[in-house]
Structures are given as C-alpha cells and as structure tokens.
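U., I forgot to send this yesterday:
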Amino acid sequence: MQTSTFTIENLQTKVNRNDEAFMVSGLGDEAVMMNLATGDFLGLNPVAADIWELTAQQVTIEYLIEQLLEKYDIDAEVCTTETLAYLQEMQKENMLIIGG
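Result:
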C-alpha cells in the first residue's frame, strides 16, 4: 500500500473513502464500521463520521477542510492540522483512497 504524508502543501490532493473495505452503520451523529478484511470494528466520533460522509465522492483535502470549517466552530489552522492527522490515520486503516 502506498503511503502519503498529508501536508499543507498538498491540499489539492483528492481523496475518497474506501467503501469496498468497510461496512458502516450510523449511530446518531456517530458511526461504527467494520473492516471487512480483518473483522476489526472502528468507532467514528461526529467529526470523523462527517469526514467519512464528505469523502463519499472524491474531494480535495482543501474542500474537506472548508466544509468542516463551515460546520464547526474551530480555528482554521487547528482544523487543517487535525484533519491532515486524521486523514493519515484513515490511510493507515485502509479507509482512504488517494487519487489524482
């Protein structure tokens, strides 16, 4: 698996979720998902669940951050830093497809 490091310099990178690898069920504003390859379960808090929903189709990281900034009362720098870190985690868990 190719690993990318997400940084402020590559906010135009396009990403989308790896639907084929997970079964997902919503629980209010959160979600629980099962990795179909490993059988592992993951819980998604409301922000992570929003990121999962926003990446249903391929989007740029910049677009993803803009959507989160519109929804949540958070500093832009903090949002960017935390979103990039979470995308790293998503990629490690095979939850993310990196594209063009």
